[in-house]
Amino acid sequence: MVTSFVYSAVRTPFGRYGGALAEIRPDDLAAAAVTAVLNKAPSLDPALIDDVVWGNANGAGEDNRNVGRMAVLLAGLPTTVPATTVNRLCGSSLDAAIIGSRAVESGDADIAIVGGVESMTRAPWVLPKPSRAYPAGHTTAVSTTLGWRLVNERMPKEWTVSLGEANEQLAELFSISRQRQDEFAARSHTLADSAWSAGFYDSLVAPVVADGTVLLARDEGIRPGCTPEKLAGLKPSFRPDGVITAGNASPLSDGASAVLIGSEAASSRIGISPLARIAGRGVSASEPRMFGFAPVEAANRALRQAGISWSDVSAVELNEAFAVQALACVDAWKVDPAVVNAKGGAIALGHPLGASGGRILGTLAARLRESGDRWGVAAICIGVGQALAVVLESAA
Predict the structure, then answer these.
(1) Contact 120, 353 (CB under 8 A)
(2) Would you state the pLDDT for residue 130?
(3) Is 226 a catalytic residue?
(4) Which regions of the chain are under pLDDT 50?
(5) Is 329 in the active site?
(6) CA atoms within 13 A on the CB side of 286
(7) Among residues 189, 226, 329, 351, which one is catalytic?
(8) N- to C-terminal Cα distance for the chain?
(9) Is 351 labeled as catalytic in the residue annotation?
(10) pLDDT one-digit tens code per residue, 260-273
(11) Active site residue: 189, 226, 329, 381, which one?
């Protein structure tokens, strides 16, 4: 088997729910990310792309009917470039990267674009279709933006609690205080603002442009000057006496990400040097309400596959769905918190479900290139009790 590498990565800025990207269709966001990642390799003939693997969590609206293929067509790639869309909820674009890297390593592909998209703003309401025409009772429109919907009655009730309630239970289980969560959340905003100001994201983020106008050039959810004291004033969101607030959880977001993956032999055709080798992959599952803790085992499995341990790891990109679940994972790994999300995380940057995996993978590769360190881990929790992780080895 050959080895797979990350050659480049780019994403759109992540917009707030109902914010600057609210008028942009998800398939157009996806196309923008595909175009942007190809702009990183201008000598690559798009016809040489063997496959596009795209992540999307909802798929209930304008992102229906294989949004990955729609992105290829809207981006103007040759119609001979195939594409598929995968759905592992929040992990969809990291799953796409795992699938793409396996295709390269098995010889089924030499060059692949992977990534994902989500417009949580534009996710539609849906109506259950009745089994018979003209039902006599009322029908309720269900939001597809986030979380459980149209739940099967056979599913145990303790599994189908809200994502917030599941993380309230996690806070109780691991005795993670509101203060720790607010401190972690404030850190996310501070580091994200600093990274943007220092120019770290300049090459990783492509502005979203419509009709010649830049709609968004920087992540919209970052709050410069955010402090634990300010966050302490927010009311709990899920329990009257709870610890989870809108300030220490990731916001609803819109955005897309893309990563160019290829074999070592493909370097001459891609025209640029690789950033990092994909050295290990891990997938794990848990009881649905423990989804926030599932990255612990996924990352441990990826490290074992890479043949290294946590003592070798210099950078971690862990998607911050909630501060409490990120803290629980960092505590379990016993890793230095300073190496985790050093450029900010999803609490500040945003969490457009299908795009976040590509974001953390691209950010991890860029961090390793910047620091010169060798090993890094990207990990993400997934609703309904799953998680994914990827280990990168710097190619520098």
Answers:
(1) yes
(2) 87
(3) no
(4) none
(5) no
(6) 20
(7) 351
(8) 22
(9) yes
(10) 999 999 999 999 99
(11) 381
